[in-house]
């Protein structure tokens, strides 16, 4: 039987390279969360692959990424992780690199996005 898992999303930390009003930042954070949620099956696939090797794999990781002026992710890397699984960590970071976000109004946007994983 295939194990299911819970993927918990925590607070998103967004910093804009160009100044933004507080209302714009909140709106953009909401847009980022919406796009990340739309891509959860990709993150889930990374974790499922890890579960096939380590059935009790659990932990969290934070991915730092930068959204370029055209909305494409120009940089993505794992900042912190308690998963202790380099393949899952690399898979999630690579997956994020392929995402397309709404174009920022000005400059680039740096995002720190935490994910938590646990088998059910």
TrEMBL record:
InterPro entries per record: MasK-like_C
Top-level taxon of the source organism: Bacteria
This protein's UniProt keywords: Signal
Signal peptide location: 1-22
Residue stretches in coiled coil: none
Protein name in the entry: AgmX/PglI C-terminal domain-containing protein
Species of the source: Nannocystis punicea
Lineage: Bacteria, Pseudomonadati, Myxococcota, Polyangia, Nannocystales
């Amino acid at each position: 039987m295939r194990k299911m898992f819970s993927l918990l999303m925590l607070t998103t930390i967004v910093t804009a390279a160009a100044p933004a009003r507080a209302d714009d930042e909140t709106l953009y954070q909401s847009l980022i969360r919406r796009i990340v949620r739309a891509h959860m099956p990709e993150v889930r696939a990374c974790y499922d692959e890890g579960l096939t090797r380590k059935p009790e794999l659990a932990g969290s990781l934070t991915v730092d990424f930068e959204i370029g002026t055209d909305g494409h992710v120009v940089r993505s890397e794992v900042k912190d992780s308690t998963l202790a699984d380099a393949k899952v960590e690399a898979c999630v970071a690579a997956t994020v690199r392929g995402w397309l976000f709404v174009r920022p109004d000005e400059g680039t946007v740096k995002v720190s996005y935490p994910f938590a994983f646990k088998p059910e």
